What does this fold into?
Amino acid sequence: MTHSSPSSHKASLIDGKAYAASLYTRIREDIISFHEQYGITPGLAVVLVGNDPASEIYVRNKALQTHHVGMRSFMHMLPETTSESELLTLIKQLNADPAVHGILVQLPLPSGIEAHRVINTILPQKDVDGLGEVNIGRLASNRPGIIPCTPLGCVLLLRDQLGDMKGQHAVVIGCSHLVGKPLALLLLAEGCTVSIAHIHTRDIKVLTQQADILITATGCHGLVRGDWIKPGATVIDVGITRLQTEEGKSRIVGDVFFDEAVHVAGRITPVPGGIGPMTIACLLENTLTAARIQVGKSLPCV
Ligand code: NAD
It folds into this structure.
């Protein structure tokens, strides 16, 4: 009798890098036609407070890709000692600057600065992270708005892989304001049945084993083991943990125990090369959307 052992199965890899590259190509073309139509080059302002090394890498990558697609990039690197009122003054200046169509404040902010107040000082039409109350409220009410970048990246990849997701059971691990919660809202809008798990959820494995779509965004390396996954499920790993290798180099890993999961899942995102590249591409897509809103075009649909 011949049968394939469970370990001979290999999930297909969801290539976020390739999908992001196709998004960049399309955004670049859209920016050229936007300029031809309105004589405007969309601009993105990125604000970093303090000198967190990981955040510095993120904002430099964002600036690089912004130039790459033909947008204007405005970097504001502020010292760790910046006060909340100084930061709010800068945000108000950027709100009033017609060359700036999108404003992103890199999180986390140093202690003593209330992120909520800072994010909600950004005009909703320039809130390219989609994290302000107006844009989150629009998402929760199924109204068009600017959608948070990482959740948008997840849903674009899922649509590309699965097409119609109506009726699928999606389990999201992590319920942060930045990823888990907006992602759950987006999946509801796709017609999924959505379960949300978090640090206080009991027996997460029982829940995840029922997931047709499993998305994890916790920052807990290796949390999702192979036996947490329903055979054939689609697994999206948003988590990022930096590990130090013995040679003193740093390596990025996700929440999923990849070597086990790859033998159970039907499709899976690698880390790196999965959701990470999608996040920056979606930020630039949102900046173009913001520029369109500012010339009076209607908002895109969820
Ligand atoms: P967060 O710390 O704000 O939230 C983490 C969430 O995970 C919380 O809801 C918490 O309840 C849950 N959680 C933590 N430990 C858990 C456990 N053991 N079991 C179940 N749930 C648990 O983090 P965040 O900002 O939402 O980011 C989550 C992860 O995603 C991080 O690793 C972050 O670096 C990564 N991230 C990646 C991208 C990207 O572009 N790939 C973008 C944003 C965030």
In short: The chain has two domains: 39-123, 148-276. The mean pLDDT is 95.
